[in-house]
Amino acid sequence: MQLKVKKENKDGVVRLESSGIVKEIIVNENLLNPDEESVSICYRGKNSSGIIDFTPAEIDKIFESVKNRMHLIKGLKRFSGSGAIITK
Fold first, then answer.
1. What is the rounded CA–CA span in Å between residue 41 and residue 19?
2. Half-sphere exposure (CA, 13 Å, Cβ side) for 13?
3. What is the predicted pLDDT for the residue at 32?
4. At residue 11, what are phi and psi to the nearest 5 degrees?
5. What is the DSSP string of 19-73?
6. pLDDT tens figures, 23-74
7. DSSP label at 79?
8. Could you tell me which residues come within 8 angstroms of residue 88 by beta carbon, excluding any fewer than 6 positions away?
9. What is the b/e burial string over 17-51, where b = at least 16 CB atoms within 10 angstroms of the residue's CB?
10. Among 73, 52, 33, 53, which residue's Cα sits nearest to residue 86?
């Protein structure tokens, strides 16, 4: 995966780029407060690592954006029913 971040500081805009592999995807369920559920993507690279948290609404928006174009990605297999996606 490739990560590109644009951050503003007192000297202006700083652009950071990093790459790594996704190590784990965690679904954080909260039965008492369902509005606080999230999906965490944990990654690790040579010089960086981190966690990216998404709300369920953000995951839905990402899926809706790419679902009609998934056939264009070579090596992508989807199991029907579960929604699991596997790449070669």
1. 14
2. 4
3. 83
4. -90, -5
5. E-EEEEEEEE--SS-GGG-EEEEEEE-SS-EEEEEE-HHHHHHHHHHHGGGGGGS
6. 999 998 878 877 788 999 999 998 889 999 999 899 889 888 888 887 777 7
7. -
8. 75, 77
9. ebebeeeeeeeeeeeeeeeeeebeeebeeeeeeee
10. 73
Alpha carbon distances (Å) from 70 to 16, 27, 30: 28, 23, 30
The residue written with tokens 């407060």 in the block is 33
Global model pTM greater than 0.85: no
Place of tokens 């990560």: 3
Q: Other C-beta atoms within 10 Å of 56: how many?
A: 13
C-alpha to C-alpha distance for 59 and 70, rounded to whole angstroms? 15
Both tokens of 49, joined, read 């690592």
Between strands 38-44 and 21-28, the pairing is antiparallel
